[in-house]
Design goal:
Two copies of one chain form a homodimer. By secondary structure, chain A is an alpha/beta fold. Chain A is built from five helices and twelve strands. Helices cover 24% and strands 38% of the residues of chain A. The termini of chain A are far apart. At the A-B interface, helix 5, strand 8 and strand 12 of A face helix 5, strand 8 and strand 12 of B.
Chain lengths: 217, 217
């Protein structure tokens, strides 16, 4: 069965050209969700939203009305709430049975919000959602059990444990391979590896980790 | 007993003027440590290092020799190693009985290195070191048990659990106070609080969390 895919735009920085961003997603059949000020980022990319969601405190009222008149669904939330707008967007995607989610604009702006966006990868995973932070030359996702990667030769690869330790870690196809290793969250051993083969595999028997793929330094 | 303090400069971005950075540290009696390319950052701030440490692969050889001739201690490490240069700098500080450490240049550059720098707060804490990431308008540290804050009225405050959950969390002096609450790493509940009093207190009975104080948005 085909996965239901959504692109979620949040209020951070663009890290590449419009063409580069559009190339990342052109093969995909995406529902496009603007999270509050993420709408401005979509406008820069000439991407039209299907839904605008959040407390809308970063958007001028007339802009929201413009999209409402164009038939775009608006889902407002109160400003004072326990969740960030991005978390509410993930809850929406869960309710609507989207399973494969791409987050853009997750970086830049306040570092606490950037960290919150990155830690939401764990929230998504616990909800059964496959969420990836994506920008030109960068991908951040979550690994539990195993994951295969293709066509990333010479890109940087880092593994950052979120649980205090990850165990039974094996890395194949990398400059620094590992076999049945244990990595600790507070040590930096998984940082700055590199893909050396066209296909590579990561196995994590116990625990969860972020993976980060970077094309450029 | 007076704490032995060190300033550790790593190879990220400056996020403020020379004057702002120098004002942060002018009252302190600091040993200044350049971690590899962090030396260039110290040069921009007109701060002279006592020690240059790391694999030195980001520095021209003649620059290293210049400082060596000036009597600066050079501590080289191999390029291929399990630790990042910043982790090695913390190990050095532990050996030399420094206990209060300030990290500058921790942000910018590659996101995996930025995350590794932030997660090193936990490494430092486990070593009995008090490490703070510091730049004009920003402070990132680790909280376990309790911490008091003074003179941060109107600044943003975020609490980001590193352990899967933090329990017995109380916040006093903040816009959104908490009493004996539980926060989860993968939820965003601790993000975007604000100091509303001149003095504030955070208590975390169980678990560890990052705290982030930001002056500007």
């Amino acid at each position: 069965m085909k996965k239901k895919q959504a692109l979620i735009a949040v209020n951070g920085e663009l890290r590449g050209s419009k063409e580069e961003y559009r190339a990342l997603f052109e093969q995909k059949d995406l529902t496009i969700i603007a999270v509050d000020g993420g709408l401005l980022l979509l406008e820069e990319l000439d991407l039209f939203p299907h839904l605008i969601l959040g407390d809308l405190d970063s958007l001028p009222q007339d802009k929201v009305e413009y999209y409402q008149e164009k038939g775009v669904e608006i889902l407002p939330y109160p400003v004072e709430k326990d969740e960030t707008d991005t978390e509410l967007a993930l809850d929406y995607c869960k309710r609507k049975a989207y399973t494969e989610l791409f987050l853009i604009g997750a970086r830049g702006g306040r570092i606490d919000q950037e960290l919150a966006n990155i830690f939401l990868l764990e929230y998504a995973w616990r909800q059964g959602l496959d969420l990836i932070i994506k920008e030109p030359g960068l991908e951040i996702g979550l690994i539990n059990k195993n994951k295969k990667f293709y066509n990333h030769k010479d890109h940087y690869f880092s593994l950052v444990p979120l649980s205090e330790r990850i165990q039974g870690v094996s890395l194949q196809g990398f400059q620094y391979p590992l076999a049945d290793a244990t990595l600790l969250r507070y040590k930096t051993r998984g940082i700055s590896n590199k893909f050396v083969e066209a296909s590579a595999e990561v196995i994590v028997d116990e625990g969860i980790a972020l993976y980060i793929i970077q094309e450029k330094v």
